[in-house]
Amino acid sequence: MKPTIDGVVVKNLRLIPDERGWLMEILRCDDAIFEKFGQVYCTTAYPGVVKAWHYHKKQTDNFTCVHGMMKVALYDARENSPTRGNLMEFFVGEKNPILISVPPGVYHGFKGIGTETAFFVSIPTLPYNYDEPDEFRLPPDTDEIPYDWGLTPGLKHG
């Protein structure tokens, strides 16, 4: 697996604990990684479930896992990219708090790993368009992307 994809940025997140609990800033408007705000949403993945593959033509996705752990994979399918064909893989969550910024045209997906539901927070640069979604999908086991999610037989993935 090649280690980089042009335009993908990773930000290490810092936990700030005290006697009440902890705080973790995910994305700030004064971060170099910040482009613009579209919306914030949370999605989950049960252990062993894969949600992949998709990409966007217009928006940049910024995301992290705030509870549990996820395996995140990225694939550069952009025609004119210097890193076309590269894959990246991350383990994101409580044990590795990072924010991943994925530019338009890069396929991405994730798998819940561990024994508990993983909570994924996304801050895309555009709001979801219900009439014309900026979302283009392939199944997790597509032959177009040379990546093996280790799909669990009988589980619904997608």
Automatic annotation (TrEMBL):
Residue(s) at site: Participates in a stacking interaction with the thymidine ring of dTDP-4-oxo-6-deoxyglucose: Y128
Source organism superkingdom: Archaea
GO BP annotations, alphabetical order: polysaccharide biosynthetic process
SUPFAM superfamilies the record matches: RmlC-like cupins (SSF51182)
GO-annotated cellular components: cytosol
GO terms for MF: dTDP-4-dehydrorhamnose 3,5-epimerase activity
Protein name in UniProt: dTDP-4-dehydrorhamnose 3,5-epimerase
Organism: Methanoculleus sediminis
Phylogenetic classification of the source organism: Archaea, Methanobacteriati, Methanobacteriota, Stenosarchaea group, Methanomicrobia
